[in-house]
Amino acid sequence: MEITETRPFVPWDQMENFMIDAFKGYGVPEEDAKICADVLLESDRRGIESHGCNRFKPIYIDRIVKGTLLPVTNIEILKESPTTLVMDAHDGMGMVASHKMMEKLIEKARTYGMAGGAIRNSTHYGIAGYWTGMAAKAGMIGVTGTNARPSIAPTYGVENMLGTNPLTFSIPTDEDFDFCLDCATSIVQRGRIEYYARAGKETPAGTVISQEGQALTDSQEILDRLVAGTAALAPLGGIGEDLAGYKGYGYATVVEILSSALSGGQFMKSLTGVSRDGSPQMYHLGHFFFVVDPEAFMGREEFKKIAGQICRDLRASKKAPGEERIYTAGEKEHEMWLFRKDKGVPVSEGVQQDIIKVRDTLGLDYEFDFEKSE
Question: Is 307 helix (H, G, I), strand (E, B) or coil?
Fold first, then answer.
C-alpha cells in the first residue's frame, strides 16, 4: 500500500497532551481524559480519520458544551454474574464506560472462557475496534456493536430508522497485527460524510438517498438532511435487493437489537439527540460486548497460529489481473501505523482550526508547527 501525505503533522505526544488538557478543561477527570485521548488517537494511528482528531471538537467538546454529553461518567452496575455485566453510563463519556466494561469482561473471560456485557444510556464510544482490540491484546477474541442516531433506511424504505451500527471483530493471530474487521453496516457512515464535508469533498453517488428516492452527493447537504430526517444512508449492498442490501439491513438490525435489548436501553428514533420540540437532548446510546478466550478451547497459541495461517493463505491466493496485493482486515491499518508512528497525526485545515479554537478558548499553552508555516 503506497501512502503519501501532504498535510502537516502534529507529534503524537503533543496531540495526546493537548487533548488530555482540553478534555480536563471541559470537566473530564484526568484519568478519563487519558482514555478518551487514546481512543481518538488510535483512530488516527489506524488511518480511520472519520473517528479521530476530526471528531474531537464537534462530537465530544461541542456536545459537552451543549449539555448532551456529561464530562463526568458515573457508571452504575445494573446486573452482574460471573460471565455477564450490564452497566448504565448515565450519559457520561461512552469511551470511559466501555473501557471499564472491557477490563471487567477480559478478567471474567480469563476465568470462565467467555463473557458478555451491555451498556445503556451511553454516548459515542469512538472506534469499535478499540474495544475489540483490548481483547485481542489479551490474546482473546473481541466482539462489539453499538447503535447510533438513525441514518440507515430499511430495504425498500427511504426513512432513516437504524444507526450505522458497526458489527466489529478483533481476532488475535501469530502475525504482527490482529485480524480486525471494524466497519459500519451502511455503505458509508456518518463520520465519513462529516470528514468529506470538512474536506470539501462530495460523498460517492449511490450511498445516500433522499425521501424522494434521489441520489445525494453534497456532503454538507447530506448531513443537514440526515438530521432533518429527509435523507437516509443505504445499507451494505445498496438500496433494494439486487445487490443484497437486505443483508446490510439485517446486520444493522441485529446490532440495534443487541445494543438496546440486552441493556434494556433505548433504540432507533429515541437516539436522535433532538427532542420533539427541536431542542438538544441526551443520546442514550447502547453498546454490547463479547469476549472469548481461545485458551478455553484448544489453546491461545494454536488458535493464533491457525488464524494467522488463514490470513496468509488468503493473501497468497490468486490475484485479479492488474492487482498487486490482497489484504486481510487490519493489515492496511497496521501499515498506516508504521507510516505515521514517527511522523505524528496529519491534520487538515479544519482540524487545525478546531485545535486552535479549543486551545484559545481554554487558554492552553500550546504552539503547533502548522502555525509556524503560515
Answer: helix
